[in-house]
Amino acid sequence: MRNTLHPASLRGFLKPKIPFYKEIIRTMFTHYDAIIIGSGQGGTPLSMAFAQAKHKTALIESSHVGGCCINEGCTPTKTLIASGRVAYLSRRGPQYGVYTNHVNAAMNDVQVNMEVVRQRKRDIVDSFRNGSERKLQDAGVELIFGTACFKDEHTIQVRCKDGPEKSLTADRIFICSGERPAIPKMDGFNAAAFPPGTVLDSTSIQELGVVPSHLVVIGGGYIGLEFGQLFRRLGAAVTIVQRGAQLLPREDAEVAEMMRNVLEEDGIRILLNTAPTAIRSHTTTPVSVLVSGQNGQSELPASHVLFAAGRVPNTEFLNLGAAGIESTARSHIITDTQLRTTNSRVWALGDVKGGPAFTHISYDDFRLLRTNLLEEGSLSTADRLVPYVVYTDPQLGHVGLHEHEAREKFPDREIQVASMPMSYVARALETDESRGLMKAVVDAESKQILGFTCLGIEGGEIMSLVEMAMIGGVKWPVLQNAVWAHPSLAESLNNIWSFLK
Ligand SMILES: Cc1cc2nc3c(=O)[nH]c(=O)nc-3n(C[C@H](O)[C@H](O)[C@H](O)COP(=O)(O)OP(=O)(O)OC[C@H]3O[C@@H](n4cnc5c(N)ncnc54)[C@H](O)[C@@H]3O)c2cc1C
Ligand SMILES: NC(=O)c1ccc[n+]([C@@H]2O[C@H](COP(=O)([O-])OP(=O)(O)OC[C@H]3O[C@@H](n4cnc5c(N)ncnc54)[C@H](O)[C@@H]3O)[C@@H](O)[C@H]2O)c1
Hints:
By secondary structure, the chain is an alpha/beta fold. Helix content is 30%, strand content 24%. The chain has three domains: 16-69 and 122-181 and 312-374, FAD/NAD(P)-binding domain, CATH 3.50.50.60; 191-309, FAD/NAD(P)-binding domain (3-Layer(bba) Sandwich), CATH 3.50.50; 387-499, Enolase-like, domain 1.
């Protein structure tokens, strides 16, 4: 562990009576054991682990502590989605014999105050962010607010939010700078030409103080579906424009089709094989999206547009070339299975390295680096089990291989698949939330579970039960013969296996 550098060449300029100069030079040339760029779900715990191991550690953050997950990703969206679910169930009250206005109405009237919905979200984000800042302080991490870029192989230049630029060097540098929303390519598109707050991305839409009258969502992936259903439930008309032939392109076709049925039943219009060609001002509505699809060109007048067509890595400001760090054609940092970049002093973790872009993956990258660099372990990302949950309602939980992936990966093995509608699950029927299906993919000979999907009520939690079995190498007959409490959602794991084909 080294201390602050005072380059000999500059010492002569220091006048002992002028501490101001000393301070400038001290902060301009500082050496650390570890520098972490980006305070996301990988960067924050990693910086704490290094500081707690008595390494001199700096964490550089250009925006706010906590990264995407806490500030504009998981935390705020799941908080907003909770409001949407309350609106949905309140409206459906009469189906359960519960009325808020006229007894015997087909549906309850629901009023949504978007400012209250938004405030609830802001409060939770603030509390999570403040908690993270406190933990960093307690761990002894030096938090520097500014934008980092490489000057050379081991020097980081920081354009600080307050104060002069800093040059920092380190024995080890970790890049965890995440991703940001992509803007779909459209000729002549200029966001500034539209009324403020009408052309939105996944961050700006969370600050709406009103419910859109018609929201056009561009992109039918995780972000498009979560926000599309949320705003439909809060009262907006919603159209989802999806370039591909199915929603959620990575899912098996029947799961994506079931998701489409669910969303259409909720009143969302879905245009598949369709992409925007232009967005323009309209005489009667703030924006109008021109789309091109199977049936030619059409125009979608809207109050608001949401870009949810993927995300791009925050790498272009890092000047990676100066440090000899290579990236892919899509600008993600290239790493090996131990997260080493092409510069032996630099590692990359989280979304910025490409691959599955989830908080738990960024956090697992941190765990790997902590084990390998601070505890002399040798973990690798190869064959890591990747679970995820899309927080639509019902949720889509998935772990391991999809059917098409299993067949591609093991062409010589017999793959069996079980698909069971959620309407076979007693608890789902009792709560009148039986939309969806669950699907298991297994190796016929060994009876190992290769993958599992649940698009159903609490699909993420059911999936996690199966994930636990997969982690422990528990084969499907054990789940089939287990005693699950009745009537739990888990007891569906007694029954699904009888559908294996
Ligand atoms: C709307 C939305 C909902 C999501 N919901 C979920 C969910 O439910 N579950 C889930 O698992 N994942 C979800 N995700 C994805 C998840 O948020 C990300 O995978 C995760 O936050 C990535 O963490 P990270 O540590 O890689 O980077 P980030 O959390 O993105 O952190 C990167 C940090 O680096 C900073 N930074 C960037 N460049 C520089 C620089 N040059 N200098 C200094 N600092 C810099 C940024 O300001 C940022 O704070 C969601 C994402 C979005 C957008
Ligand atoms: N619950 C969660 O875990 C969660 C929630 C939100 C986001 N995320 C993470 O954030 C990432 C980014 O989410 P996302 O939904 O923006 O990206 P995505 O890649 O998952 O989906 C983007 C979708 O937009 C479509 N698309 C792309 N260009 C288009 C165009 N020009 N016109 C119409 N459609 C177009 C794609 O076909 C795709 O279906 C996700 O991959 C996920 O890792 C996770």
